[in-house]
Amino acid sequence: MAIREKMIDRDFAESLLKTFDDPYKNGVHILFNEWWQYADESTKNSYVAQMTETGEFENLTNGSLYNNTPLKIEVLERLPAGSLGRAFHDWIISNNLTIGLATNYKAMHEKFKSEGILEGMPPEMESAVLRAYQTHDFQHVVTGYDSSPSGEIALQSFGFGQVRFPYFGMWMSVSMTRMTFLSPHRITEFMDAIADGWELGRRSPNIQCVKWEDMLDQPLAEVRKKLGITPTGIANQAIK
Length: 240
Fold this sequence. Notes:
Blueprint: H1 10-21, H2 28-35, H3 41-52, H4 58-61, H5 73-77, H6 84-94, H7 101-114, H8 123-143, H9 149-162, H10 166-181, H11 187-203, H12 220-227
Helix pairs in contact: 1-2, 1-10, 2-10, 6-8, 7-8, 9-10, 9-11, 10-11
């Protein structure tokens, strides 16, 4: 009896194409939330196993890292120049971001959950994505990857190099599909970014479970040294 190969659900494929066409309008976060109700059970179990079997990512998947006390921009501004917290403040301001991004994402997550959109998402993945939204910009600061398209792709590749989290993989899929079929002039730029992030992620100690909120007053240079992160390659505009 022939073994049926896994296939991408055709209903989900419509959402996938929408993200391929316009990832700004139909973001990867939407794709990530929708996918679980269509995903093959063995695939979901494999992702969960890779994130839980060693215990390395336990705090990421059990929700204990989630910070229920939102950071305040005015408090970060008063931290010493050169500290992690002050560098994080400067990153938020210089990129016209909102410090409430993670809080806003959690509200959207809860809304999707109440509407049944997150059906099938394992609780470990819920915890991981909620914390990931709190730590994303901290990881920009520590790795030195900027907010350009290449910097964003590099950071997602860095994360994927450290943990087999499907959100990161979906970012890779969308980026590589778009550069191949729509923007071939960016192939070298994006592949260099992907390679740089992956290599840095693989050779650096795991930082996906770091409690950044406990290190805000520490010098950024010391935080990088403590975590074993040395910005290189395309991160030549690393935050000082």
